[in-house]
Amino acid sequence: MKSESTENKGKPHSSVPSTLPTILIQSLVDNYRDNQLTYINENLGVDDAHSIWFDLPTLKSFIQDIEEQAHLIDPNIPDADLGVRFYYAAYPEEPQEPVPTDYGKRHTLVMIPTKIQAGLNYDFNPFEELGEALAVAAIKPVMALAQNHGCLVPPNTSQIESY
Predict the structure, then answer these.
(1) Taking CA atoms, which of 51, 100, 104, 154 is between 20 and 30 Å from 81?
(2) What is the domain partition of the chain in residue ranges?
(3) CA angle, 125 then 111 then 72, to 5°
(4) 154 compared with 131, residue with greater pLDDT
(5) What is the mean pLDDT of the chain?
(6) Model confidence over 97-128: pLDDT tens digits?
(7) Are the C-beta atoms of 73 and 125 separated by less than 8 Å?
(8) Separation of alpha carbons 12 and 2, rounded Å
(9) First to last CA, the chain
(10) DSSP label of 149
(11) pLDDT at 142 exceeding the cut of 70
(12) Strand locations in 42-101 (E)
């Protein structure tokens, strides 16, 4: 089954873009930097990451993987029942390959697919038998459909930021 994003490739996007006032964006970023980031840097002794960048092909591919894997399990699942949860996470003090060693102890994001089931939004791993929610099948270790490891700032200072 083709996903909606595959079917619309090359066609004009017809919905209204999601927007926020720039003053709100700046306020949210400043609140984080002035509070959580300052606390982390002062108390953990680390120059923590304050942003993470993912290229569009990586994000699009991840979304397409979610759609395709979910439709393999349930061809009738509506796209509106699928989503992505962003977990705040931190690398260990001494990261292992392929994570750069200068990412140690810094914030990151882990993206996990979600699906609505019985009116509730669950973390969803389509690689588990019958696509059970991660919370239900956490007993046995398996690979999970997930995305991580974008470009952290800092340590990467070659990224240009405006907020």
Answers:
(1) 51
(2) 49-153
(3) 35
(4) 154
(5) 84
(6) 888 889 999 999 999 999 998 999 999 888 87
(7) no
(8) 18
(9) 40
(10) -
(11) no
(12) 51-53, 82-90
Q: Cα separations (Å) of 18 from 25, 55, 142, 148?
A: 13, 19, 35, 24
Structure tokens at 131: 């696509």
The Cα 156–Cα 163 span in angstroms is 16
Say if CB 28 and CB 51 are below 8 A apart. Answer: no
Which of these, 114, 127, 32, lies nearest to 79 by C-alpha position?
A: 114
Give the whole-angstrom CA distance, residue 85 versus residue 146: 10
The first and second tokens of residue 22, run together, are 């720039």
On the question of pLDDT at 140 being above 70, the answer is: no
Q: Are the C-beta atoms of residues 64 and 5 closer than 8 Å to each other?
A: yes
Handedness of CA 52, 53, 57, 63 (dihedral sign): positive
Q: Give per-residue pLDDT as tens, 48-97.
A: 999 999 999 999 999 999 999 999 989 999 999 999 999 999 999 998 88
Pairing relationship of beta strands 120-123 and 107-117 according to DSSP bridges? antiparallel
Whether omega before 154 lies within 30 degrees of 0, making that bond cis, reads yes
Tokens matching residue 59: 């994000």
